[in-house]
Amino acid sequence: MTGVRPRLPHPIVVLRWLRAGVLGMVAVTALLYLVVANRAGEQITAAQRTTKAIQHIRAAYDQAGKADDALDAVSGTGALDLIGTGADFANATARVSSHLTSATEGNAAGERGLSHIQFVQGQLATCVQMANTAVLDGAPALAKAGDALDDAREYDGRDPVPFTGGLRQSLRDLEMLEAAARHDQLRSDWRDPGLLWPLFIGPAAVMLLLVCATGGIVARRFRRYPSPALVVALLATASIGVTMCTTDPLSAAIALPVLAAAGALAYLAYRPRLAEYRFPRS
């Protein structure tokens, strides 16, 4: 008794399956783009707010330095009881307060960040109060106000303890805290490379296998070279995936037309071979 050899599908049928698979991978990439771009856009917008908050903190640090310089200038005149802390000190500390208020809007460190911002605001108020009191108490009290602005941090062994120094050092610590929070914003959830690479490279890898299978069938069965349009469609689709994994999401005005063009090229790449055979509709 002889075995019955299984009937292999016609190459045209296989090409139709492959075409459907290639177009499906382009569609999957487009769907993933829409989902990830929407979710990642929210995280990027939040990170941009945090960036502005960090810029305000840096500006507050610069203004605190100007306030310190203003106190040094007043101390050098020897006329503290006559001129007080001066307009430069008052203006600089007012700007520090304004920048801290603005930084609160972009706080990304949650309750911890808000607590430290309030702590720094309290330090600022203490510095201003000490400087104003120094007008009556004299130069030694003014020196203490300067120390409150520019003291170094304390150390636990070799490790510095954040928020244990003067106002300027606390502003540096606050900047580092918000920068770390921004880093987490940009690397979490829909911006996490550990999630994005499998999402986008998976469809591109499957599409590559389908394109290679198509090239093999076209070369063996039809004695033709594979269409360059199919390779271009693969590269265009993969480029969108790689871009999504490595940079901020592309604008929809760029990504969607590229994927649409990839789908059109893939469809047209199969058309000459499929047009060689016509099967009656059942």
From TrEMBL:
<feature type="transmembrane region" description="Helical">
    <location>
        <begin position="250"/>
        <end position="270"/>
    </location>
</feature>
<feature type="transmembrane region" description="Helical">
    <location>
        <begin position="225"/>
        <end position="244"/>
    </location>
</feature>
<keyword id="KW-0812">Transmembrane</keyword>
<protein>
    <recommendedName>
        <fullName>Integral membrane protein</fullName>
    </recommendedName>
</protein>
<feature type="transmembrane region" description="Helical">
    <location>
        <begin position="12"/>
        <end position="36"/>
    </location>
</feature>
<keyword id="KW-0472">Membrane</keyword>
<feature type="transmembrane region" description="Helical">
    <location>
        <begin position="195"/>
        <end position="218"/>
    </location>
</feature>
<keyword id="KW-1133">Transmembrane helix</keyword>
